[in-house]
Predict the 3D structure of the following.
Amino acid sequence: MMTFAELGLDAKLVQATDALGYKNPTPIQEKAIPVLLSGTKDLVGLAQTGTGKTAAFGLPLLHLIDEGHKYPQALVVCPTRELCLQIVSELELFKKFQTSMHVVAVYGGTSIGQQIRDLKRGVQIVVATPGRLIDLIERKAINLEQIKYVVLDEADEMLNMGFKDDIEFILQNTPNRESTWLFSATMPPEIRRISKKYLKEPVEITVGKTNTANKNIDHQYFVTSAQHRYQTLKRLIDFNPGIYGIIFTRTKADAQDIAEKLTREGYDIDALHGDLTQQQRDKVMGEFREKTLQLLIATDVAARGIDVQGITHVINYELPDDVEVYTHRSGRTGRAGNTGVCMSIIHIREMGKMRHIQSIVQVPFHKMDIPGGKDVCRKQFFHFMDKLLQTDISHGDYESYVPMLEEKFADVSKEEVLKRVAAMEFDRFLKYYENAEDLNIYEQRRERFDRSAGGDRRGGDRERTAGRDTRGRQYGSGGNGGGGDYARLFVNLGTKDGFYKASFLQFILDMSDLRKEVLGRIDMKEMNSWIEIDKRAAKQMIAAIDGKNYKGRRIRMNDADSRR
Ligand code: AMP
């Protein structure tokens, strides 16, 4: 294994990595750092978050930049405020021994004035989200004339969030750019195109397999019926008493709904979704980071860029449509060498989708039984007993109470004391789980389902049957090919706007406050999309979306069939 010194980094930077306790470079650092230090102009790094990619570009930047000149020399562009702050805080640690080096974070949702003042103080590295950066460029508050290095971090996420034009604008407005380093977890065609257009013969570095989930993650799935999804979620949480996790939902409405229900039932949970103000969002994230909040429930969009250490579990309340979304979700756990569990609650009709994800991710997914009531109680019981045994009694004045306690408990045996303690703690669980239902859907029930769904079970090919059913009806209760009770809506948004199916689905549902059950098939093209929707909900969706603005462009939505 190499050391940071052997990679050719400046002694001050090696000292900083030592101070951070980094023993050896991670694979991406080992591959990228020498290449970037050797004067390579352009680089494409295919790596997911958690691989140490911030240091892979951050350390070379700090090595190459001239500390003596107090103007922006490097620009790091990333998709979210969270990631922006995270990159800056890592750079701050790396530049600990470079006292004249300055880094500033510029991102939206907060006062621009302070950021302008920070820029004026003289900084060498600017870490920015695209929207705010463009604002600053247009106000002429930032000087990009002498930017030599541009790093695009999480380029695929930026594209997913619709920042394609902004990225191109930024690249076009850095006229003296000498090096462009693009980092992305995946390589969709659009990233290839940007790379081809703006990068010159880039060195390509891949860490792990693109789209491949981290090997430290145990992928599990639980098959239940649609109406038992919520109960299954609860049971999974109860079965994992020490859980510190993120639950993903597809819509804002689900996230909010479930958070409210679980809070009412005494769970330590809060929701993160697009409706929160920046202040509310910071509060929730702060509590979660400090672990005063045990569970976070979030939509994919709201959770972008979140990097919290030590997440034990990711739960997919529903499977996403895109494999990339699955990989992003599961990648929130099992970071920095830790292990993690990604649990998906799936409905029988999602088996095909699940197998599709598994085949691309290329790691085994484990089908697990949903724990029964007794299993949950046993687990909780032993967790509590472990906690009891580990409780620190060295502080406080407990000794002085002992004679009193001994007197009080004179006629009560140790066994009885333990039973009473257990009863106090477990009443809630025991009562709740006394007559707990079995939430699993077993093969037999599944076979019956397959047959009733018209599946061909010749040769016991259950998987194919389930898969076909899922593909045919992508959004559960929906998809009937345009007839029946569905209206078909046209909208002038498409993949060119940076949407992919899951994000588009979430966008239209969030805008219209409708639930996904109203939707049928969604057909996305580059410029336009067509949406099948329950006729009764069509009006509400049109009213909510038609005429609104999306990135400065007016959205047009109408009944597709009346346009003909
Ligand atoms: P990133 O992929 O940049 O988000 O990094 C993931 C985490 O790994 C961060 O918390 C880093 O502080 C940590 N990290 C980065 N490089 C190393 C290293 N060489 N050794 C140990 N931890 C590291």
The chain has four domains: 4-206, 217-372, 374-433, 466-563. Residues 76 and 127 are 5 Å apart (CA to CA). Residues 217-372 form a domain with the Rossmann fold fold (CATH 3.40.50.300). The longest helix spans residues 414-433.
